[in-house]
Design a protein that fits this description.
By secondary structure, the protein is an alpha/beta fold. It is built from 18 helices and ten strands. It has two domains: about 290 residues, Alpha-Beta Barrel (7-stranded beta/alpha barrel), CATH 3.20.110; about 110 residues, no CATH class.
Length: about 425
C-alpha cells in the first residue's frame, strides 16, 4: 500500500505601505493596514475558514484514517491574531484531533537559509516556539520557505534536530528516479527528504479550473487513479499545495471544495493509499538512497531554482542590506525594531522585485507594487529608516562594504595561492 501525505501551506506577508524618501527618519510605521486587513478578511471568508471546516469534518468522519499536515508561517499567524482570530481557533480545532501535524518552518517565511545560517536557525526556532505556544505541538519535519533546499541547508536542518524536510521533486535533481521515494541528505543521511510530486500538486494548484486543460474537468475518481498509479520502488506520494487553492485560487463555484471532499473520501476507502503525516512517513518507510542537491532548488517556475527571489541586482542588494543589519538589530532592546526586521525578511518582498517577464503572479498573494523598481525603492527606503533607528549611518554602510570587499579579495587571493601550490605539488 502506498503512503499518501497531503500537506497544506498557509502563508501571507505583511504588505508594506508606500514609503517615500522624505519619510525616512520621521515615520517608523511601514505597513498598509487597510490592505492587510482587507486581504486577510477576504481569504479567511473565502478560503481558510471553509477549508478548515471541511478538513475538520473529514478528519473526524474517518476516525484516524485521514491525516494531513499544515505549515503556517509565523507572519500569517501574526496577521490572523490581529485581523482574523477565528482562523486560529479553526486551526486549533484541527490540532486537537490528533491527526494533523503542524510542521516546522521559518517564522518570517524568509530567505535566511540562503543568507545567514545563524539567522536561519533563530527564525526556525521562533517558528517552533510559536507553534508550540499556540497549538501545543512540535514537529520534527520542516518545510522551508518556497520549499528552498540544498545539501547545505539540509545539513543545517539536521543540526537543528529535524528528521525530515519537504522539498520539490524537480526533474533536474531526480533524473530517472521517482519523487515517490524517500531520500536522504547527501551530507547528513539522518535527514530524510520528502519530495513533492509537482505534477499532481500543480494539477490542483494551477490547472484544476482551466477549461483549456486537456484533462478538464478533473474528477475525484480520475485524480485518485493518478495518485494510485504504481511504479518501481514507489513508497509515498507527497502532495503539497497552498491552502488558498481551496476557495481563493479556485473559487467555490468551480466545485473545488466538493472535489477535495470527495477525493479524500475515495482515497480513504480505496485500500491502495494509506494516509499518513510526514513524521509517520519517515518512521514507517526507510530511505531508498542518498540524493545530492548542490545548488538551491525551490518550487517556483519551470526552472525550480531561486532566481525568482535572487535573480537580479535589485534583489541581491536588498537581501544583502537587510542581513547586514542583523548584528545591530540583535543588539538592540526595542521589540518593535526586532519585529519590523523579521517582517522585512519575508520572501514576498523580494519576489515583488523580480524582473523576469514570466514570473508567475500569485493571485492569492497579490503584488502591491506597479514595477520591480518601485518595490525595490520602497523597500530600501524602509531599510534606510530602520538603519537610522538602530544607529546605522550611510558611512557605516560604506565601511561595511569596504570591509566585505577586502575580505572577499583576500579569500580569492588565498584560493588562487592554494591552487598555484597544488599545481606545483607544494604543501599549503
Amino acid at each position: 500500500m502506498k503512503a499518501f501525505n497531503l500537506t497544506f501551506q498557509i502563508h501571507q506577508p505583511y504588505r508594506l505601505r508606500p514609503y517615500r524618501f522624505f519619510d525616512i527618519g520621521s515615520e517608523h510605521y511601514y505597513y498598509d493596514d487597510y490592505a492587510n486587513e482587507a486581504l486577510t478578511d477576504w481569504l479567511s471568508r473565502k478560503c481558510y475558514l471553509p477549508a478548515c471546516s471541511m478538513l475538520l469534518r473529514k478528519v473526524i468522519q474517518y476516525k484516524g484514517k485521514l491525516k494531513i499536515a499544515i505549515y503556517v508561517s509565523g507572519v500569517s499567524l501574526d496577521l490572523f491574531q490581529r485581523y482574523a482570530p477565528q482562523v486560529i481557533e479553526a486551526l486549533k480545532r484541527l490540532a486537537e484531533t490528533g491527526h494533523v501535524e503542524f510542521i516546522g518552518g521559518t517564522w518570517s517565511h524568509s530567505l535566511a537559509s540562503l543568507q545567514d545560517p545563524e539567522i536561519f536557525r533563530q527564525d526556525a526556532l521562533l517558528h517552533r516556539e510559536t507553534i508550540r505556544e499556540i497549538f501545543g505541538l512540535t514537529s520534527q519535519t520542516f518545510l522551508n520557505s518556497e520549499l528552498i533546499y540544498s545539501d547545505d541547508i539540509g545539513k543545517q536542518l539536521a543540526d537543528m534536530g529535524y528528521k525530515a524536510t519537504l522539498t520539490e521533486g524537480a526533474r533536474h535533481i531526480l533524473g530517472w528516479r521517482s519523487p515517490e521515494m524517500i531520500y536522504s541528505n547527501a551530507l547528513n543521511p539522518d535527514l530524510r527528504l520528502l519530495m513533492r510530486h509537482f505534477r499532481l500538486s500543480d494539477d490542483l494548484t494551477f490547472r484544476y479550473s482551466n477549461p483549456d486543460w486537456k484533462e478538464y474537468p478533473l474528477t475525484p475518481e480520475k485524480f485518485l487513479s493518478w495518485a494510485e498509479a504504481e511504479g518501481p520502488g514507489i513508497q509515498a506520494l507527497n502532495l503539497c499545495i497552498d491552502m488558498e487553492v481551496l476557495g481563493a485560487l479556485h473559487t467555490v463555484d468551480t466545485g473545488i471544495f466538493s472535489f477535495m471532499e470527495n477525493f479524500l473520501g475515495h482515497m480513504v476507502k480505496s485500500g491502495r493509499l494509506k494516509s499518513v503525516t510526514p513524521s509517520e512517513l519517515i518512521g514507517q518507510y526507510p530511505p531508498s538512497s542518498l540524493i545530492s542537491v548542490p545548488h538551491p532548488l525551490s518550487w517556483a517556475e519551470e526552472e525550480r531554482d531561486i532566481s525568482t527571489w535572487t535573480g537580479n541586482e535589485l534583489q541581491q542588494e536588498a537581501l544583502d542590506k537587510v542581513y547586514r543589519l542583523a548584528d545591530r538589530v540583535m543588539q538592540c532592546q526595542d521589540p518593535s525594531i526586532i519585529r519590523d526586521w523579521w517582517l522585512l525578511q519575508t520572501s514576498d518582498h523580494f519576489h515583488y522585485m523580480s524582473t523576469r517577464y514570466y514570473a508567475r503572479e500569485l493571485k492569492h498573494r497579490p503584488n502591491p507594487h506597479k514595477t520591480p523598481h518601485e518595490a525595490f525603492v520602497n523597500y530600501m527606503n524602509i531599510l534606510a529608516d530602520l538603519g537610522k533607528r538602530i544607529g546605522v549611518t550611510g558611512e557605516d554602510n560604506i565601511k561595511t562594504r569596504e570591509i566585505e570587499q577586502i575580505l572577499k579579495e583576500n579569500r580569492e587571493l588565498k584560493a588562487k595561492l592554494e591552487s598555484y601550490r597544488k599545481e606545483r605539488g607544494e604543501q599549503p
